[in-house]
Specification:
By secondary structure, the chain is an all-alpha fold. It is built from 11 helices and 2 strands. It folds into 2 domains: about 70 residues; about 220 residues, MetI-like (MetI-like fold), CATH 1.10.3720.10. Helix 3 runs antiparallel to helix 8, helix 5 packs across helix 6 and helix 8 packs antiparallel against helix 10.
Length: about 300
């Protein structure tokens, strides 16, 4: 009788414990989710504050320098004030010409960058993986790489049938080499133990590329994409200033020719904002494409 009672009490305790766990686990999970959300917001809040402080500091230096016309080797006497630049932005915003210039630059940067990304990543994977391919391609690429994109402008005008194609080609050159080299170095830096483990498990070359090399090289690829986007904007603006008829670079150079200082600063700010947006899009795509890096970085913290 005593043994049966003890057994019954033990079973009841087990059922009670299971029911308590089933009741409490959603609460614990909910608290964990709330804590994670709070930590994420806190980190983002601090980052946003620092970003605002950085941008606000630049604006403050600009405002004080133009207001008091500071002349301490760096001269702000002829630099337009933020108010004058804002007035210029309102003025050009009333017509579609300024918007057309922005859209023209975006179309060129996207076209050149897309071609550079596809070709640079593919060739970088091949060069980084196969030594014979590296011996074949790298000497020619290393000869072409130091040539500035601006030096290619006369040659591109002769090579391509119109200015639009030549400007896209200059933009492509600016982005291509950073993407290529970062991808090749990323493949070359993959741990050989991982490749040998894949082979020992029976993976063929295509499977090694898909399951081992690509995930391992993704951080290097997105680093190359971010650097390539910045160089692509520099190359695009230089090409538009020299041979373009539309675009933000052409708008800025035209403002300089007409001695329209507020328009010059407006063009510079436009370039900066567009470049920031493109770089932010690449970083966002990198976070989406590599979700495992968030857990790795969190583990390191």
């Amino acid at each position: 009788m005593t043994l049966r009672t003890s057994s019954t009490m033990a079973e009841a305790a087990v059922h009670l414990d299971d029911s308590m766990q089933g009741t409490c686990s959603p609460i614990v999970e909910r608290r964990d989710l709330r804590q994670e959300l709070f930590d994420w917001l806190r980190e983002r809040y601090v980052g946003w504050l620092l970003a605002c402080a950085s941008l606000g500091g630049l604006f403050l230096i600009w405002y004080i320098g133009t207001k008091y016309e500071i002349d301490l080797y760096i001269r702000f006497k002829n630099v337009p004030s933020p108010h004058h630049v804002f007035q210029q932005a309102v003025e050009v915003g009333r017509s579609t010409k300024y918007l057309h210039n922005i859209l023209s630059s975006l179309r060129r940067i996207l076209a050149g960058f897309a071609i550079a990304s596809g070709l640079g990543v593919m060739l970088g994977l091949i060069i980084g993986r196969y030594e014979r391919a590296r011996d074949l391609f790298m000497p020619a690429l290393e000869v072409l790489r130091p040539i500035p994109a601006i030096a290619w402008v006369p040659m591109s005008i002769m090579l391509w049938p119109n200015n639009e194609a030549s400007i896209i080609f200059i933009t492509f050159l600016g982005a291509f080499f950073p993407i290529l080299l970062n991808t090749a170095h990323g493949v070359h830096g993959i741990d050989r133990v991982l490749l040998n483990a894949g082979r020992s498990l029976g993976a063929n070359e295509l499977q090694l590329f898909w399951y081992v090399i690509l995930p391992g090289v993704m951080p290097s690829v997105f680093t190359g994409l971010a650097v390539g986007m910045g160089v692509a904007w520099v190359s695009l603006i230089a090409a538009e200033m020299i041979s373009g008829q539309f675009g933000v670079g052409y708008f800025t150079w035209e403002a300089y020719s007409l001695v329209n200082y507020p328009a010059i600063v407006l063009g510079m700010l436009t370039i900066g904002v567009l470049g920031l947006g493109c770089s932010g899009a690449i970083r966002l795509l990198g976070h989406i494409s590599m979700p495992w890096l968030a857990s790795v970085n969190g583990g390191k913290k």
